[in-house]
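New to this. Please check this protein:
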Amino acid sequence: MDHFPTNWGRPRNDAFDAYATYPIHQRPNNGPKDAFADGVQRTQQPIVTGTSVLAIKYKDGVMMAADNLASYGSLARFKDVQRLHQVGNYTVIGAGGDMSDFQYIQYILEELSIDEISAQDGHELGPVEIHEYMSQLMYARRSKMNPLWNSLLIGGFKDGKRFLSYVDLLGTTYSASTLATGYGAFIAQPLLRKAVEGREDVITEGEARKILEDSMRVLFYRDARSLNKFQIATISSAGVSISDSMQLETAWSFAENIRGYGAQTQ
């Protein structure tokens, strides 16, 4: 039986709609469905996007940072989006790029975690397994000409070993002691390398946090798609901790000496 009154051919009274069917954007189609009707739909470009994610190794684990902004084009639309996501007990995944695709990735990883728990075989997914799974998923979607428009950083700590790696929409992967996505790969990465490389085994958690905060501050000054509200994730032998959103302390007095700022013309 067709339960949608608007499909019965009943005359409508715009002054009083007894069936609460107005406005009708699209009437449901209860006819036979074409299996190939959705087969050619592809995301042509990311719409609501997140910018940089930063990550470094330090003495006791891995630390990651990402702001809470999701931009609709050049509009700073959503300012409370969490772009750092915990997976299992040992891993955090940080995403730049399309936020709807990241939500899909979160759903896929949640399903994967449930399957792993249900197996009850004594094994738990760690950062190495999550990274391998994501690299295969991203490459498979790219090969189908329907990529997930994200750049992902995967950080974790398991069995006394730190892990930090990158995977993008093409399935490209690599690891390093400092990683960044988006504009941060150009602006923040040199700062991270200067502060961290060669010192991964001596940097304390406090020093690592200061390095990331300073880099996030530079990004806020320079990246038009960033925000001064961000979160930091810490992954160590103590487990996974993702902080509440925090505000950066910024100063803009230096801008008065920049040509073209405000009313200054010379």
